[in-house]
Specification:
36% helix, 11% strand, alpha+beta, 3 helices, 90 residues, 2 strands
Length: 90
């Protein structure tokens, strides 16, 4: 999973040396590691670095493809709309 979220090269570095974006990618790896059937994500695109939003969209698409349910709270409407089955705007 470290390879999938582009953290393999810093696997031995202490967590305190990770940037906010790196910590977000690590959190994504931990989230998807067990292939959960239900994902509840609050602002998962926040603090992601350049290529990570596409990575998150890919991981979410994989989860949806295997039948997982995803509940996503976000301000990133375009990214969410590309994956949404249903949408609620409040």
């Amino acid at each position: 999973w470290l390879e999938r979220v582009n953290l393999r090269q810093v696997a031995d570095a202490p967590l305190r040396e990770y940037s906010r974006g790196m910590r977000q990618r690590l959190a994504l790896a931990r989230t998807f590691l067990g292939e959960p059937e239900l994902l509840l994500l609050d602002e998962p695109f926040t603090s992601l670095d350049d290529k990570a939003p596409a990575l998150l969209q890919s991981l979410l698409a994989e989860a949806l493809g295997r039948g997982a349910a995803v509940v996503l709270s976000t301000h990133q409407i375009p990214e969410a709309m590309s994956l949404a089955t249903y949408m609620l705007c409040i």
